[in-house]
């Protein structure tokens, strides 16, 4: 006869743990040992003799053939590191042979309960992983391993059948020597793919990933990315039906960089440019009266005429690209063409280079007036890129950069069961 665990000798005494942990028959709390000095709680589980367990492969029920004592780290119980011990039964199945029974509290890896893993994922979404590890009182390496298993499990079930517009971008880490390419689903605003490198082959990998998860590269009709030849080639080869929108923030950034080079070149002979570096990056309306004065003084000085001119050209370019809703595509075409023609003739080599770049990528830049796509509109995008750059130093491997990015922006669904003690 199978005994009800609540009738076990210690049933009443350990009812608190029994209920707090939602332990379901046949399992019961046999003993709980509290060590105040070590702030540790050991909970020992057992099952009544004669209990039946399912073969994990075929589901037939048997009594335990033998058992092995196993330990799992569980969530803290009132600041006590809690460890669960249980004699893990094996069954001798007629069809499958000797198999270890699955217990509902065990996590994917060894040594932690599934509830502990769920909390670890929750902490690691918002906190730097080293901080989360400290909070959980486990080592960084252990936490990274746990996250890798959980994220891999969630990615396995990713459904990409409704993806038709994507944003592609890269981040560098380790002082620019290594790159990671990110692909976001533009409509659901989530990270769906990440891989090392920034060559055209990264998009071949993406196309393969898409196919494995119910998607179709031929259904991708809109892509937003920067003007890197590798991505353009990668899109043409692997997402052949996609129309590219070049991210307008990358265009403005190229112009800002050009302006910066002009300023640096002229600053050798122009005292007025001293200390103005960051003012030139801003819009006129964001400058204080004093800052505007110093820019005007610089513009009037004969020695740095090109910096002033390049600044005015930048403001105009920004106005064209920001005007957006005010301009029709054809009006925008005229204005943008006018701008690059001016840039090509302006006798400032850095700005002329921007003009050539815009001329070369004209249709894709103009496409924004129709598609309205920018990478900056992707939620989580900036945090992922920032994290890629900033926290990467502590990440050691590119895999960890990708892992953390998925935790932050992947909107992953983890299949942590609600009741972890009772599988039925
Ligand atoms: Zn079996």
Describe the structure.
By secondary structure, the protein is an alpha/beta fold. It folds into four domains: 5-106, no CATH class; 114-156; 165-247 and 374-409, 2-Layer Sandwich (Nucleotidyltransferase, domain 5), CATH 3.30.420; 249-371. The chain has helices spanning 15-20, 114-126, 129-136, 140-156, 201-212, 229-238, 248-267, 289-300, 305-323, 329-345, 349-360, 362-366, 368-371, 381-390, 392-395, 398-409; strands at 28-35, 40-46, 52-54, 61-63, 66-77, 80-93, 97-100, 165-173, 178-185, 190-196, 222-225, 243-246. The strands form three sheets. Strands 1, 2, 5, 6 and 7 form a five-stranded mixed beta sheet that branches. Strands 10-9-8-11-12 form a five-stranded mixed beta sheet, with helices on both faces. It is elongated and about 95 Å long. It binds zinc ion (ZN). Zinc ion binds next to loops.
Number of domains: 4
Q: What pattern of helices and strands is seen along the backbone?
A: HEEEEEEEHHHEEEHEHEHHHHHHHHHH
Overall mean confidence score, pLDDT: 86
Rg over CA atoms, rounded to whole Å, is 30 Å
The main pleated sheet reads as: 5 strands, mixed
Helix content: 40-55%
Poorly predicted residue ranges? 420-424
Give a summary of the structure in a few sentences.
Helices cover 43% and strands 20% of the residues.
Architecture blueprint of SSEs:
Blueprint: H1 15-20, E1 28-35, E2 40-46, E3 52-54, E4 61-63, E5 66-77, E6 80-93, E7 97-100, H2 114-126, H3 129-136, H4 140-156, E8 165-173, E9 178-185, E10 190-196, H5 201-212, E11 222-225, H6 229-238, E12 243-246, H7 248-267, H8 289-300, H9 305-323, H10 329-345, H11 349-360, H12 362-366, H13 368-371, H14 381-390, H15 392-395, H16 398-409
Parallel strand pairs: 2-6, 8-11, 11-12
Antiparallel strand pairs: 1-2, 3-4, 5-6, 6-7, 8-9, 9-10
Helix pairs in contact: 2-3, 2-4, 3-4, 4-16, 5-6, 7-9, 7-11, 8-9, 9-10, 10-11, 14-16
The structure holds zinc ion.
The site of zinc ion has 7 residues, from loops.
